[in-house]
Each structure stands twice: as C-alpha cells, then as structure tokens.
Specification:
heterodimer; A: mainly alpha; Rna Polymerase Sigma Factor, Chain: A; 7 helices; B: alpha+beta; Jelly Rolls; six-stranded antiparallel β-sheet; 11 strands
C-alpha cells in the first residue's frame, strides 16, 4: 500500500459523512468491497453469502461514516471491525459484547496531526506484517480469518504494536481531556 | 489505578471475534475501565485492518452489478449522526455488563451460595460461564483449582491472594496451573465478574455436595 493511500480513504469517508458523496463511496467500494468479500470467503462464507454480506458491510460503512474516528483507526481497520461483526452474525457465532465507546460530539473533531500520524503508523504496521516470516504471518492471518481459537493463538504474537498503541493512547487521552 | 491487564492472546482473540461470549464480556468490561487496554485493543484491530487490506481480492470477483446494487441501497439509507447512546450509568457495573444484568447493581438477581457469598449467573451462550460474585469483606473466596481458563475482574472492593492484590478494574487471568485462595479485603464487600471455561473445583469452604447447585 502506498503511504498516501491511508489518508485518501480518510478523505473519502469524511466526504461521505459530510456530503453524502456517492462518488467518494464508489471509489472506497472499488478498493474495499473485493477485499471484504475475500475476507468473508476465507472466513467460511460461500460466494453468494459473501457477496450479500459484503454489500451489507459497505452499506454500514456509508451509514456510520460519521462515527469513524481517524485519530484512532485507519479506514481499513474500521471497515475490518464492521466486516468482523457481520461475519459473527453470518456464521451465527457467539455474540460479542462491546465496550461502550467514548462519546464524542461535533465539538471534538480529531486533531489533524493525530490523524496523519495514525494513518502513517497504520501503513507502517501493514508493511511490518507483510515482512514477517511466513509462519508467523500466516498464524496472524488465520487468527483474523477466525480459524484459531483463543488457546491456539501464540502467547507471544511478535507483532510490533508499541508505537501504534502509544499513538492511539495519546488520541484517547486527548479525547478524554476534551470531554472533561 | 489498574495494574492487572488483559493478555495479548485475549485481546487478539477478541479482536478477531473468536472468543466465547462470556470471555468477550470480561474483555469488554475491562476495556471500559482501562484506557491502556482500550488502546492495545485498537492496535490489535489495526492488525485486522492490515490483514484485510492485504487480502487478495476474491478469486471469485464481485458480480458486475454489486456497486450498482449497493448504491441503490444507500439511496434509501441516511447516514447516522453521532449521538449519545442510552446508558444505564451504574457506578459499579460497566455498560457492557449492565446490559447483561438489565440494569444497575440493584437489578442483580443474587443467589446465596453459602457463607455470605452470593452469585448471579449472566445469560451467555457457548461453552464458558460468566457470573457475578459478591464476597463479604474479609471473607475468603472458596479455594479452588481451575480447569481451563478463568478470568476474575474486580468491580467493587478488592481481593488479594498469596502473590497479588486486585482492585477495581484489575483482571486476574488464571489457568490450569494456578491454585489460589483469594480473600476479599476488609473494608468494602467485594463484587467481581468471574468467567470460567469449566466448573470450579471447590476445596474448602463449600462442601463438594453444593457444587451441583451452582449451575456451573
């Protein structure tokens, strides 16, 4: 993924949220819909079910675009969480209770430098995962395609998550501060 | 200040969406009280994002009409504005737990299991069990070994075992190897969320005969 891509998806999601821009949606769809479909098929869906659920995921992307916080997630990460939740429904897996999110209103727009930094960290994480030894990378992919149970996941993931975690922590602290 | 956190394994399995419901409930409850684990969880979600982004587009491509069909669907779907969701707002129970209780602490349906200890089993599916435990101040939680994974998260008061102290928000992760005897601290009665993969093996305080009544 080219470094500029992460910020491009953020830009498109903001156009959807603010202007209901269908051209922006079509561009986002072009990149993510085939990947969501592949993700769902690797998670056990057949062609027709994956196609239907991919449309559901992209409709959710459209309707919830205003809830995307680019200082805490990349577009790919946010769309992954929507696809994961759709997969859990689709496969009738155990319900997955979620922590209440920090509420942020119109006054708490994300800081642009935070957004840029987080998108860069996300791109670097993607590159780092692509560069992992095959065995380790495949274990991680299998975990996220839902093929591994908790006990099958390695104790030490070997993932370089320190930097992106610290970046998200800063964004959370800033949000908490603005809310108080 | 929270000093006992979730493990990477639990966070990754929760992020991947593969944990049994009862364990997911403990993760969600802890994350609500712990911004450090909220940030760690978001970093594991970022791994999921990277995996999605690196997934080769489906070998069976999307049908030609997929975009048109989706555009037709969004025409009738208005984007949702951010709004504050309805909250139960309990001082003890995180929202994720309050939803399972159906209200705040006053709505918990406690049942006595002896020696002043009370429990309430929460409605989750699957192979694991989630329960709230109420342990009077100064009272020992029955000594038990474990079968499989057990998580215990403190919601009110504190407990300590031979090695560690656990206060509000702290989560103890125990597996087969651990045998311990946590004691609720003097001062405040202790409320915690306990999630088990398998029945507790009580040794001391409760007669073994009582076990079938615990509905584990």
């Amino acid at each position: 993924m080219k470094p500029k891509d992460g910020t491009r998806w953020v830009f498109l999601l903001q156009k959807i949220a603010e202007k209901r821009d269908t051209e922006a949606f079509a561009e986002l769809f072009g990149h993510f819909a085939p990947r969501v479909k592949a993700f769902l098929m690797k998670s056990g869906a057949d062609h027709a079910l994956a196609e239907e659920c991919t449309q559901d995921v992209m409709v959710t992307v459209w309707s919830k675009a205003a809830q995307f916080d680019p200082s805490r997630a990349s577009a790919a990460t946010w769309i992954f969480t929507i696809a994961r939740n759709r997969r859990i429904d689709m496969l009738r897996r155990d319900r997955r209770p979620e922590p209440e999110d920090l509420f942020w209103g119109p006054e708490e727009e994300p800081d642009q430098l935070d957004v840029l930094a987080l998108q860069q960290e996300s791109d670097q994480l993607g590159a780092a995962i692509a560069g992992l030894p095959d065995k380790q990378r495949i274990m991680i992919e299998r975990a996220y395609f839902g093929e591994l149970s908790h006990s099958e996941i390695a104790e030490e993931t070997g993932l370089p998550l320190g930097t992106i975690k610290s970046r998200i922590r800063l964004a959370l602290d800033r949000l908490r501060h603005n809310l108080s | 200040m929270i000093i006992h956190h979730l493990s990477d394994k639990l966070l990754m399995a929760y992020s991947a969406g593969t944990l049994p419901e009862a364990f997911s409930l403990a993760v969600a409850a802890h994350v609500e009280l712990c911004d450090e684990c909220r940030a760690r969880l978001a970093s594991f979600d970022a791994v999921g994002g990277a995996v999605l982004n690196a997934t080769e587009p489906a070998s069976v491509p999307l049908s030609g009409g997929a975009l048109t069909a989706t555009l037709a669907r969004i025409k009738s779907t208005a984007p949702v504005a951010r709004s504050r969701p309805a909250r139960i707002s309990d001082a003890v129970l995180p929202e994720a737990l309050a939803k399972y209780v159906g209200g705040g602490t006053e709505a918990i349906k406690w049942r006595s299991i002896g020696n002043g200890v009370r429990q309430a089993i929460l409605p989750t599916s699957g192979t694991a069990t989630a329960r709230l435990l109420y342990i009077p101040a100064g009272m020992a939680v029955p000594d038990h070994g474990h079968q499989g994974l057990e998580l215990t998260m403190v919601l009110q008061g504190a407990f300590a075992d031979d090695d560690d102290r656990f206060a509000r928000g702290d989560i103890e992760i125990a597996d087969d190897a651990v045998e311990h005897q946590p004691v609720a601290e003097a001062g405040a009665d202790c409320i915690c969320l306990a999630v088990t993969e398998a029945p507790l093996k009580f040794r001391d305080l409760l007669p073994r005969l009582a076990q079938p009544f615990l509905r584990i």
